[in-house]
Structure formats: structure tokens, C-alpha cells
Amino acid sequence: MSNTTYNNPSQYKGKEWNELLQCFNKRDLKASLKGAYRKTGNEILKIARQRLMSSGIAHASKLKKGIRLRVYPRGGGFMITVKPHGKQGFHVNRFGLEKPVLMWAEEGTKERMLRLLPSDGKHVIKTDKGFRTVGAFTGRMPAYHFLDGVYEQGVQILNRDIPSNLENSVMRKAGRLGWT
User: Fold this and answer.
1) Confidence of residue 13 (pLDDT cuts 50, 70, 90)
2) Please, which residues have CB within 8 angstroms of residue 103's CB and are 6 or more apart in sequence?
3) C-alpha torsion angle, residues 67, 73, 79, 83 (rounded to 10)
4) Report field, pTM of the whole predicted structure over 0.85
5) Nearest residue to 8 via CA among 179, 126, 178
6) pLDDT 10s digits, 23-37
7) Which residues contact residue 119 at a Cβ distance below 8 angstroms, ignoring those fewer than 6 apart?
8) CA 6 and chain centroid, separation
9) 177 CB-contact burial (10 Å; exposed 0-12 / middle 13-18 / buried 19+)
10) Cβ–Cβ < 8 Å for 101, 66
């Protein structure tokens, strides 16, 4: 190990930076990497939530908690998603049921009818007075596509912030390990 002491992280170049990374075990290095991804991902998450608020969907302030950040457990990156997981990403409707409304709002839904007749798979039956509809029409939900522009903005933020966030995360972890 080098005896050189630097107080400024930007002075760690080449050999000193490699020696610093060699003192980390695999777990500490992965934790530093995930910390940098989490910090950068939270900035992109704020943009996604702002786009949801401006999309015009009803109750957006309640729904914005459903957009979530997932940092991959092995340190390989992160993603912003609206897919529900566990208790996250669900909206409780007026009947107390949990529904993945954000997932439907991002992609939209198609028109459909509830309850097909088992005999012929149709939604109407013929009676002596004509035809009668069975099953409720559920309508369709338009696609809001609030995550579409987030990717382009996210790439710029990622390229701008990930090197500095990674360096800060590594230096913070090195400080805990005794490097100065």
C-alpha cells in the first residue's frame, strides 16, 4: 500500500486509485457501486414523478409513490418502474381493493366485457324480445405514457452524475475503512 495521503479525492489517479480499490473487498465495492446508482437513480425518479404529476391523471399525488426505483442486487444498475411489487405500486380503490393503476395508466388498457357466457363465449344472449347484454362493460383507460421522456433525460443525468457519485461513494467508504 502507498504511504501517500491525499485529502482531495480528485488527486487519486491511476496507481493510487487502483490501490484504493484493491483494499476493498467485493462486498464493500458492490455497496459503493449500489450507493452511487441509488443516488443517481433518485434524481431520475424525481423527474419521473414530476412527469406523472403533469400528465393529467387523477389523484397523481397519491399515485406518485407507485413509481419506484430498483437497484439491482448485484450492483449491475437500476431501473425506474411502475410494475407493482409486494405492497408497492398498488392503489387502494373505494372498495378497499388493491389495483395496479399506475401500470395500467402507463400502457393503457383495452375495452373489454366482464363475464363471457360459457357455452359460446359471447357477451350477448338472444331472448324472445331481442338481444340482451350480459356482463358489465369495463371501458378502457387511455395510455398516459408519462415514463416515455424520462429515458432521454435519464441518460444525460447518468452520464453527468455517475462518475462523481461513484467517486464520492468510494471515498466515503474508504474513509470508514481508515483511508484518508
Assistant:
1) low
2) 82, 83, 84, 89
3) -40
4) no
5) 179
6) 888 888 899 999 999
7) none
8) 37
9) exposed
10) yes
